[in-house]
Amino acid sequence: MPLFPSLHDAVKALEHHARPQGYAVIKYKPSNYRGGKPRRMDIACACGGRKYHTIATGLRKAGTRKTACPFRVKVVQLDDDNGLWRVVVMRPDHNHDAYNPGAFPEYRRLSEAQVRQVEMLSADAGITARQILLALRAQSPRRLLATEQDIANLCARLHRLRLGAHTSTQALVARLDAEGTFHKEKLNAEDQFEYQFIGLDDGLKLVSRHPQLLMADVTNNTNKYGLKLLEINGLTSLGTVFPVACCFVPREDVPAFTWCFEQLKNWVTGEARARQLDDDAFIPHVIITDYDAAARAALTTTFPDSQLQVCTWHIIKNVATYARRHWQGDGNDDPFEPEPQRRETHSDDPGRWSGGPGERSPGEFVTAFKSVLHAPTEEEFDDRWNALIAGFPAQPRLIQYLEETWLPVRKQWARAWTRWYRNWGHTTTSPCESLHASSRSFIRNSQSNLLAVYHALRLQRTTVQEHHDRAVEREAIRPRAPSRLPLYNKVSEKASYRSLELVQKQARAATASLLYPEERALPECTNSFTSQYGLPCKHIIASFLAVEGDGPNRRVTTKEALPLAFWDNHWLLRDDLVSFLVVIALFLD
């Protein structure tokens, strides 16, 4: 047997020998101490020792690898000046088959450097044990035998070490206090969390610029406590969504939602007072939700002056489902499906439903209802509603469903009413749904604690902010058409592309009315476009244009560029333009 300079080297040599043979070795018993250090170490097979017989009730499945394997080796330090170690095989036999090295935790153990890497990677809430394992394998010079479960167990152990004597919930509150993040908790009779509200937009950085529209929706299966996650999101001038706040609630009922929205109101009101602004400076003009009675009741109580709107995509989907289930007569095999959820549903009015002769179907019923939904005026709404009733006399149950469920709240979804509120053309919660999907990529699984969920949402918020800032920089330094047109000289590089595209559509209508005053004359201005978008309508734009030339040489030119004051603060790319806008507005007055 060769000699080894240290006990560690001798054990490593035994492990290197045992691995391809299908077994693992462990340090079994140190002895023969001198100076506080052992001079003999007995080495056993990892399958040695007696089988463990549990006396538990069997609720947890347990097993053992022990087979009482007799294999024994001793490593002894020689009595000479060199202090070398010798390996002596005492019992060479095994009583079990050879196993794959991956079956032994001894071979799946990570090195100290790898443990430090796992500790660093596990601090990222969005990375999973599988992703960490793949990163380790990519950097390992030899085959890594650790499993995904090994990594998950190590991450859990590291997490417990970070928490120390605190629970995850206590650590969450401590972190929120240290960060200065706005948060409120409501405790039950057992001093346990019942509700928790957390503000994600620090200092209302984005809300202060885009307070007019909020969207609220509930996400399930985000934490191991079974709490619902109420996410409140806003919309930027670029059309992107950003997290405003979140709230953990045990139930989707009126008391829970009322408490959450009251905390939101207290938060934004307090921030407005701190800036010496009116209390309602950051109160939303419009709040969009799905058709949840509890949420709508809570919002009506908490934000009585805000326009509550119901997601039109969810309405159409519900009407389509009800129509298929309760259709009377033939035509129920119609393969109608609602359109994919879109951000804007008011941009394309399908026009009045023809209601011509022919066989009726659930799909045609939904088409008629969509025509009612998109009616531009209250008079047109009534006409299209009457046409729907007259067109489906054989479907009284469907008509009754619309009359009892949706007609009483028509001001919350019909274009004839919602176009007068500053919702930027958004009538669905699809941006909120897209952010939900993004949240799932940051939250590891449905068994996370509240601290891990918050860490994931905070990471998502940071990512959204960075993406928004980069997009704003791109729009500011790389102007697109139509921003290069003389009509937008005062607005280019200061307002978002999206606002310029909306205004350009109005400019085309204004241009056509000047070139063809008889065929393309503008209707009477209702101011609905400006009310909804906070942008100049075609009637205003027409006053900044002029017609030059005669006959075929007639063309429309710009008399004066549109002033930035016609753009709502929501559309501006930079914070410093907001105060400048006030000066311009005063000058124009």
TrEMBL record:
Bias category Basic and acidic residues: which stretches? Answer: 339-351
| GO MF annotation: an example | zinc ion binding
Q: Which domain of life is it from?
A: Eukaryota
Instruction: Region Disordered: list its residue ranges.
Output: 329-362
Upper classification of the organism: Eukaryota, Fungi, Dikarya, Ascomycota, Pezizomycotina
Entry keyword Metal-binding: yes
What species does this protein belong to?
Hirsutella minnesotensis 3608
Protein name, as recorded? SWIM-type domain-containing protein
The residues covered by the SWIM-type domain are 510-548
Q: Name one Pfam family in it.
A: MULE
Tell me which UniProt keywords the record has, alphabetically.
Metal-binding, Zinc, Zinc-finger
